[in-house]
Structures are given as C-alpha cells and as structure tokens.
Amino acid sequence: MTKEQEHEIELLHERACARGELEYRDPLTEYIVFTRIKHLERGTCCGSGCRHCPYGHINVNNKSH
C-alpha cells in the first residue's frame, strides 16, 4: 500500500468516526472495515488483527497482521 493510499484510508476512517459510523468501505479491497467506534463498543481486542484496533492488538497471536 502506498503512503497516499494509507492517507486516504486514514481520512475515510476519521470521517466515518466523526459521523459516528461503525464501519466504512475500503476503497482498495471493497471490504467493510470496522471503525475505532465499533471496536470500542466490543470492549476488547477480538484477536483478528483489525486495522483500527484501539486495544493494541493484545489478543493477536500473529503480530504480522
């Protein structure tokens, strides 16, 4: 992923959070990605290596995600 693509995704995430949204669509993969808000609702790291994990990926076994 290029720096420009990373920046675009971060902007999409920040805008989605500002609107209180729980997810947004990744423009590169078309996958639905949970926002930080959704993860905070869950209350703990799910261990999946999520892009916007606010818990520092503490439950991820393979930290290369």
Give a written overview of the molecule:
The chain has a two-stranded antiparallel sheet. The chain is globular and about 30 Å long. The protein has 65 residues and is an alpha+beta fold. It has helices spanning 3-18, 36-42; strands at residues 23-25, 32-34.
Write the layout of secondary structure elements.
Blueprint: H1 3-18, E1 23-25, E2 32-34, H2 36-42
Antiparallel strand pairs: 1-2
Query: What Rg do the Cα atoms give?
Result: 12 Å
Largest sheet: number of strands, sense, barrel closure: 2 strands, antiparallel
Helix percentage range: 25-40%
Please indicate the percent range of residues in DSSP E strands (runs of 2 or more): 5-15%
Calculate the mean pLDDT score and round it.
94
Distance between the termini: 14 Å
